[in-house]
Amino acid sequence: MADNFPEFFDTRGLRFAIDDGFSWVVANYGDMFERLLMPLLKLLSGMETFLQWLPWYVTIAAIAALTYSASRSLKATAGAAIMLVFIGALGLWNDAMATVALMLAATVVAVVVGIPLGIAMARWDGLRSMALPLLDIMQTLPIFVYLIPFVMLFGPGKIPAILATVFFAIPPVIRLTDLGIRQVDSEVVEAITAFGATPRQKLFKVQIPLALPTIMAGINQTTMMALSMVVIASMIGAGGLGYQVLQGIQRLEVSRGLIAGIAIVFLAVIFDRIAQSYGRRAQKHLASGE
Amino acid sequence: MTASDVKIQVDKVYKIFGDRPDDAIAELRAGAQKTEVLQKTGCVVGLKDIDFSIHNGETFVIMGLSGSGKSTLIRHFNRLIEPTAGRILIDGRNIMEMNAGELLAFRRNGISMVFQRFGLLPHQTVLENTICGPILQGMNRREAVALGMEQLELVGLKGFENRFPRQLSGGMQQRVGLARALATKADVLLMDEAFSALDPLIKSDMQEQLKDIQARLKKTIIFITHDLDEALHLGDRIAILKDGELRQVGTGEEILFRPADDYVERFVRKVDLSRAMYAHEAFTKVPVLTSTEATPERSAALLREHPGVVVTNGVGPRLLARGATGEAISVASVDAGAAIGQCFPLLAAHDAIVVTEGGAATGMLTREMAFKALARSVRKA
Fold first, then answer.
1. What is the pTM of this model?
2. Which long-range contacts (CB under 8 A, 24 or more apart) does A135-140 make?
3. Do A195 and B120 touch (CB under 8 A)?
4. Does this complex have an ipTM over 0.85?
């Protein structure tokens, strides 16, 4: 057997230092963070209550209308409606709405935070060179690792669940906003500059509209990643379909896990269709007439 | 040319790319070559000591091959690129001293630009693109739309205002680019290889259209090209740029027939002289008579002193050439401004043709005259 890797120093000290440091933050600033994030909790709870209060047929009609307005395809619209009815028929309606609320709230936060960050990265190379490795870390770090500090800060519940979901889902929208803006034809930007556009006019009249298809692709990926996070988020109290899966695991009930899993897949398909169709339409607008 | 005719003055402009521009300029001023500057300071010399002036209402062509710095230079006039040293005065005002607000106002009102790959906004209609300058100037929408329609009509795109750029051919897209540039009513028009991306036929159409528009609007145009024929065709004066240095500034004729150095000489050697020389440089003035004046005796007398006589009878000029017998015969006529090359087909069909100036016949051009003029220019070159 090979020799053990030599121990250079006592890692317990390092771990204690990190843990103590974090405990200190929790003890001194935990309340502040919690107060700071109350609006987020209100957003999520509000959405969840609203979606569960809304009669199921209204929700299905609304999502079907959204699908149709994005895709202009009757087939896709019927598909979305049938899948939603199926979820309801399996007795998972309220869980599904809780999941949709978490996914939507996380996506909204990710988009609201991510798009400006992406724009800032596209503008300042220095910020970009710092942010890229950070985003790489966020995407490769096992998701469970940052569940721990969030749970310590806020205790199990919805806030850590939504924060962890946002953290997990935000990298694509940041990356693709940055990429989309960088890919805008430099001559078009130069032209509008030559005609006396201010940086703000450049951003809103040229760069964002032209980057929109790429930004939409980022939002789509973010939506999908948020949805894929729901099972894990349910471990720290997010509820919803993920909780059903978790219970299936704990009780070794194949049926419970399988049915809730299928419902998650259905939601993923529906929202993916909607987001992709919006992205395609944005793109078609740019290439109109081909 | 008096000083007041100077519209733009470029005063010892340097552009250095790299981290030590001051050292690089010092080296250059001490007489170092570009390669030495690169070795010593790690800086690339983009433009070196550029110094010339452009007159009001002039079409000034800056010509050079790729890498000569011409696209860098044209971007100095609206400060899309900042020079490392030197001044550029437009209407006597140093544009380098403008603050951000003044620069915006100057870009909106004082100068406009046409781009090689058009630079149109793909998500906006032809009309929206055309009025982007006036809208940025703060003009109200209704006025801007009226102005935009006027410009589109000027460039021959009436009826296309609601299309998107992608729906148009390259030539039409560049017309939108031109209409957009004209819509700001700026006096100075920058054209960065504006026609280089177009098919040859479309390109020459656009050149004619530009000349037409310029004859009416009398803008000060700075035109960048790598095409010597285009430079000779459009430019009142031409600047030849090589490796960021100005080799010669002069009229087309000066460049062609009195090249300043070996480089310019090699550059112009390949030019098609038949396109760079015009009928007025080769033809001979001859007496013009009406058909009643043109009695056989009088014609014979005139033919002893002149190579021919033009007879006009209201229908079209006819020519009586020396050595020919009998009646004056109908021949084709060309304008004195036509290139010699354009006369070749006519000269192949006739021994001699009539040359008109401003619509009135004034002289004649024979095969021999055309040939001699070309031979003369080759000897000069």
1. 0.77
2. A135/A171, A135/A174, A135/A175, A138/A167, A138/A168, A138/A170, A138/A171, A139/A171
3. no
4. no
